[in-house]
Amino acid sequence: MDPQALVRDHTIYSCVMGSRAFGLATDTSDTDRRGVFLAPTPLFWRFEKPPTHVEGPAEEQFSWELERFCELALRANPNILECLHSPVVEYVDDTGRELLALREAFLSRRAHETFTRYALGQRKKLEADVRQHGAPRWKHAMHLLRLLMSARDLLRTGELTIDVGDQRRPLLAVKRGEVPWPRVETWMARLGTEADESAARSPLPAEPDQARVEDFLVRTRRTSALQSDPDDERVQGVVRGRSLGQR
Q1: Whole-angstrom Cα distance, residue 79 to residue 71?
Q2: Is the pLDDT of residue 76 over 60?
Q3: Residues 6+ apart with CB under 8 A from 164
Q4: E strand spans, the chain
Q5: Residue 110 in contact with residue 204, Cβ under 8 Å?
Q6: Pairing relation of β-strands 11-17 and 89-92?
Q7: What percent of the chain has pLDDT over 90?
Q8: Structural domains for the chain
Q9: Percent helix, strand, coil in the chain (nearest 5)?
Q10: Of 24, 128, 226, 230, which residue has the fewest beta carbons closer than 10 angstroms?
Q11: pTM above 0.85, yes or no
């Protein structure tokens, strides 16, 4: 099974993430591409199942199979939710548009726990850098601040916006190491407190709308089964390809 053929032939949604989506790009910023592919249903009838995710074929490109993407989004995985809300969409087909129309169904107060847990892990890494090297990795500090802002605003408003807007200049100052670490720590602590306070009165539902998402997934799988011919050259091309390891 050739995973990269799944990305080339069966992508339903692709976007740009990272600094270019966050409004923090500079002349040296990479272009990080993320996407979702729909593995043809006949591939699930074999002993070797399609991969849940694929790296490539382009540099800085990573894609998830639709079911895995939905599972992670329902768990309020920060990277997945932000991918769904990227302002830089490069490709979307009819199935991808249905997925984007479900964005609100994935949002819930679970985001408070997942964003906070992720932020805590990143904070510990920064603190370890300070202890070992006397300074954090400033780029990582900038992105952690951005994530905390995003979490706070999501819990306050019920909407996920990932472009930093008028916070671009202060955040880039952090990236350049122009803001002392104690001030950055204070900023992070304040954002964390504001997120906690917002969670208590958030307009978000307690749980995501799993039934609505599952209905979409089942309908999509059924349509793929009805439309797919196991002898189709695109399906056979995936099957004949070299199998790669899965995460």
Answers
A1: 13
A2: yes
A3: 22, 23, 24, 146, 149, 171
A4: 11-17, 32-37, 53-55, 61-65, 89-92
A5: no
A6: antiparallel
A7: 86
A8: 3-107+209-240 (3.30.460), 110-200 (no CATH)
A9: 60, 10, 30
A10: 226
A11: yes
Tokens for 1, please give them: 């099974």
Residue found under tokens 């270019």:
20
* pLDDT, tens only, 32-63: 999 999 999 999 999 999 999 999 998 899 99
Question: What's the N-to-C CA distance of the chain in angstroms?
Answer: 15
Total residue length of the chain: 247
pLDDT tens column, 82-141: 999 999 999 999 999 999 999 999 999 999 999 999 999 999 999 999 999 999 999 999
pLDDT computed for residue 2 by the predictor: 84
Contact criterion met (CB below 8 Å) for 141 and 125: no
Per-residue HEC secondary structure of 18-57 comes to CHHHHCCCCCCCCCEEEEEECCCHHHHHCCCCCCCEEECC
The token pair that represents 152 in the structure block = 């706070």
Least Cα distance to 220 among 81, 105, 65, 2 occurs for 65
Cis peptide bond prior to 170, omega within 30° of 0: no
Token pair, residue 175, equals 């990236």
CA dist 118 and 25 (Å) reads: 22
Cα–Cα distance list, 111 to 124, 205, 216 (Å): 20, 11, 22
Q: In this model, does residue 20 exceed pLDDT 80?
A: yes
How does pLDDT run across 96-111, given as a tens digit for each residue?
999 999 999 999 999 9
Task: Retrieve residue 178's tokens.
Answer: 């122009």
Shortest CA distance to 192 belongs to which of 110, 75, 112, 80? Answer: 112
